[in-house]
Write a structure and sequence with these properties.
The chain has a 5-stranded mixed β-sheet with strand order 1-22-21-20-19, with no helix packed on it. Strands 2-25-24-23 form a 4-stranded antiparallel β-sheet. Strands 3-4-5-6 form a 4-stranded antiparallel β-sheet, with no helix packed on it. With 332 residues, it is mainly beta. The protein has one domain: YVTN repeat-like/Quinoprotein amine dehydrogenase (Methylamine Dehydrogenase, Chain H). 2% of the residues lie in helices and 47% in strands. InterPro entries: WD40/YVTN_repeat-like_dom_sf (IPR015943), WD40_repeat_dom_sf (IPR036322), WD40_rpt (IPR001680). It holds the Pfam family WD40.
Length: 332
């Protein structure tokens, strides 16, 4: 997806909806039942690292791996002893010398961070306590792996952001509080590297902070009109895609080099209610895919369209990158 100097507000990107019924007719749909507890909900799914396995993590701490080739459940990695006490808000993947691990962020008052080994048959788990802030909830609400090995970041219900360092031999971890000021829960963290290593944090306070790790300070702050649920690094340099609390324009493209009053571009679809902060889409180059409250998947194509042609049952769009897209003709 590309940015621009001028801001636009409107669903200008090509959008396609895929319903479960359509996927089933095309032979694409397959349902796999994972371990779950009563009132359990999914929290994160992760792409395969190198072993062809998809990892699924739930609110109550059930961790499953699924073979992507056969699309069959392989095994349950973790069954928590007290599922109702796990309360996982977020998770991320980190690569350690001993293999892939999952970082679990818990919305509880102690052992708010867990490090779970995913590669061994007897998966090992380590727990860490986050530094407490007086009079504030201690739970972790967001985590992300940093681009530097053995490091990850966490955001909390106490409005603070911490940078964690894992010791390679003992797997002990220490946390350093970063000088990032949010006035509400931190909801998303994303690492970037342009001229230096940076960390972007977004909160329910509608603030998006750009923190430079080398100078140890916030170098830029963007103010949004709506609470930011999720963030994604876009293909275009210096551009980030935000998922926000809105019923029509759920997504915003922002150029973080400047602080414009409006987003570079806003797009979305009509929905009678917002998705909530635990809904999450995915971005790959110029394409963004997300789910909606009606069980459909929405695919947005951010390429610049330079030619459009009507056919009998379709219309054809040619992009600036010499690609053709075929769409059902809504007026045929």
């Amino acid at each position: 997806m590309t940015g621009a100097a001028d801001s636009t507000t409107g669903p200008l990107l090509a959008r396609r909806q895929v319903s479960p019924q359509e996927s089933s007719r095309n032979g694409l749909a397959q349902i796999i039942s994972l371990q779950k507890d009563r009132r359990d909900k999914p929290r994160r799914i992760f792409k395969p690292v190198n072993n062809g396995l998809l990892t699924s993590i739930s609110l109550h701490g059930f961790v499953d791996s699924v073979e992507t080739s056969s699309r069959r459940r392989r095994r349950t990695i973790l069954i928590p002893s007290t599922p109702s006490g796990e309360l996982i808000d977020d998770a991320c993947m980190v690569s350690l010398p001993s293999g892939p691990h999952a970082i679990l962020g818990h919305a509880r008052e102690r052992q708010q961070i867990s490090l779970l080994r995913l590669s061994a048959s007897d998966s090992q788990i380590h727990h860490y306590d986050k530094p407490k802030s007086a009079g504030m909830r201690s739970g972790v609400s967001a985590v992300c792996a940093m681009m530097t090995p053995l490091m990850f970041a966490s955001g909390g219900h106490d409005h603070n952001v911490h940078l964690w360092q894992i010791k390679e031999n003992s797997l002990a971890a220490s946390a350093t509080r970063l000088d990032i000021k949010h006035t509400s829960v931190v909801q998303s963290l994303v690492p970037i590297h342009d001229t230096s290593h940076k960390l972007i944090s977004a909160g329910a306070d509608c603030n998006v902070h750009l923190y430079d790790l080398s100078s140890e300070r916030v170098v830029r702050t963007m103010k949004t009109s709506n609470s930011v649920y999720q963030m994604h690094v876009a293909a275009s340099p210096y551009t980030v895609l935000l998922e926000v609390a809105h019923r029509e324009l759920q997504f915003e493209l922002r150029d973080y080099r400047v602080v414009p009053r409006n987003a570079v571009q806003r797009f979305g679809y009509h929905d009678p209610k917002v998705n909530g902060r635990f809904a999450r889409g995915d971005l790959r180059e110029n394409h963004f895919v997300c789910g909606d409250n009606d069980g459909r998947m929405d695919i947005f194509d951010g390429q610049k369209v330079v030619q459009v042609l009507f056919d009998e049952s379709t219309f054809i769009a040619a992009s600036e990158h010499n690609q053709l897209a075929f769409f059902a003709n809504p007026i045929a």
